[in-house]
Each structure stands twice: as C-alpha cells, then as structure tokens.
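User: Predict the complex with NAP.
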Amino acid sequence: MRTILVTGIRGQLGAEVGEILSPLGEIIGVGREKLDLAKPEQIREAITQIKPHIIINCGAYTGVDKAESESDLAYQINGVAPTVLAQEAEKLGATLVHISTDYVFDGTKNTPYLETDPTHPRGVYGKSKVAGEEGIGQTGAKYYILRTAWVYGTQGKGNFVKTMLQLGREKEELGVVMDQVGTPTWTQDIAKAIASLLQQDTPRGTYHFTNSGVTSWYDFAVAIFEEALLLGLPLQVKRVVPITTSEYPTPARRPAYSVLDTRKLGAVLGEYPPHWRVSLRKMLEEGV
Ligand SMILES: NC(=O)c1ccc[n+]([C@@H]2O[C@H](COP(=O)([O-])OP(=O)(O)OC[C@H]3O[C@@H](n4cnc5c(N)ncnc54)[C@H](OP(=O)(O)O)[C@@H]3O)[C@@H](O)[C@H]2O)c1
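Assistant: Here is the predicted structure with NAP placed in the model:
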C-alpha cells in the first residue's frame, strides 16, 4: 500500500485531499504541530521517518495581505519548504504534488494564462509561491505543480463563500469588487483532479487546474446569494453593490485578470473541470 503524506491537513484543500485520496493509499495527514513547514530540518526528519511514496503539499502561507509584512515567513513556508520537500522526494523516489496559485501572474493579460506564460507576481505571497515553484523545478524529483485559483470548500477556517454567507446573514447591503475576474474553484474538484493525475502516468511539470468559466468577485457573490436563497438559507442581504478595486484598498495588489487556461491538464486527464457555478451549487448543497 502506498503512503501518502498530506501537509496542511486542516486547511480547506488539505482536509478534502485527505478524504478523497484515501482509496489510493494510507493517508498520513500532518498539520503545523507535527510538521512545521517553516522548519526545514523538521521537514527532512519527518520525511526520512515516514518514507512516503507520494507527498501532497497543501500547507502554505496563504495570508496574501499579511505576507506583505511577514515576507521572511512567507518565503520560508512557500519558497523554502516546497524545495526541501522536492529534495527529499527525489532522495526517496517519491512523487511530489505541490499547489500553487494564479497570483504568480500579474493579471495584465486578457486571455487565459498558459503554463508557459512568464510569471510576474504583484505581491510577496505570489513571489514566495514563484520561489517554491522554481525551487522544485531545480530538483530532479517527479513533481506536479498544480496552479489553482479562488479556492473555496466546506472544510478549513474560511474562504470567500463562507465570508459572503456570514455577511449576508448580518447585513442588508454589501459592496463587492467587480473589476477583478477569475474562476472560483471547489476544493473537491481539485482533490479529484489530483487523484486522476496520480492514477495516470502524467508527465511531470506544471499544470493549471480551476473550475471552468470566468466571473468577477461581484458576480460570484451574487451567485452565492442566489444559490443560497434557492436552498432556503436565511439571509438579510437585499443589495450587492459593485465596487472597484480602488474603493477597496488592500495591502497586497491583486491581479485584475487571473483566469488560468486548463486545457493542458484537461488533455492529459481526458476530462475538463465542471463549470464554477455547478460546483458552487453542489458545495452549498453539502452544507457550509
Ligand atoms: N485559498 C485560495 O484562494 C487559493 C488560491 C490559489 C492557490 N491556493 C493554494 O492552495 C493551497 C491550499 O490552500 P488553502 O486554500 O487550503 O489554504 P488554507 O485553508 O489556508 O490552508 C493552508 C494550511 O497550511 C497550514 N500552514 C500554514 N503555515 C504552516 C506551517 N508553518 N507549517 C505547517 N502548516 C502550515 C495552515 O495551518 P494553520 O491552520 O495552522 O495556519 C493550513 O492548514 C496553498 O498552496 C495555496 O497557496 C489557494
């Protein structure tokens, strides 16, 4: 039986990956207390002990705004740790699946980003994720870097869907940014794509995976409320107001256009991801 080490097991993606990949092997899910990604020696020791066949790195420094003032820690967790994981995977002949982000791009394109497009992150979080990708690429490990975007799911501490539902229960009017577009992506779909990728003899490299379609944060919020109302969830919200990014300043700049082209992975897996709204509906039906 294969041993599958999943880091960030209590994060929204890690928890889902731990469940969905359990038919593929013995899952060893670790959180920060067992494997602190900020401590390279601890990573090396844990991997030497566990000897996994597959490592799925769902742990990350995900505070996009906080990273602007904690750049050393962000680089340690998002840049150094994935590199160390890849070095250890190479020693064992293990496969590494690492999760990266649309924020490696600057968002100035207006057609979906390809895996071959040059990276040009706008903030520390994106830069630290690029460092991780580059570190992994310099090893000889069998690796998959899966870039995804706008992630939400039922598990973990929080995400845009949970925040909107919370605000929608409390407020009658909400302003949501309408000039940033991307593709909301359900953790369950990402976990299933990872399972398919591992079950097929997928060539190592970087792949984009998101749900299909394009939307803005504003339209995503409206869709969340429409779907929630159809399910009978109690909401106070009566009006969602489209606002611009400049009306909602944040410490980190975000890409205006962060749609990823997913055709490379689709061609390998022989199937394309569900539309974001279909997945949103399913996620809300499961309960948040
Ligand atoms: N969320 C998004 O919209 C999005 C978009 C694109 C890509 N991604 C990528 O997708 C992956 C999964 O993200 P997610 O949304 O599931 O994030 P998440 O819910 O924030 O989970 C990240 C996990 O990493 C853990 N972690 C943080 N620092 C750690 C450390 N020093 N040692 C060990 N574990 C640590 C966290 O543990 P604690 O709970 O203890 O902090 C948390 O369980 C990440 O690589 C992220 O960059 C996310």
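The chain has a mean pLDDT of 97.
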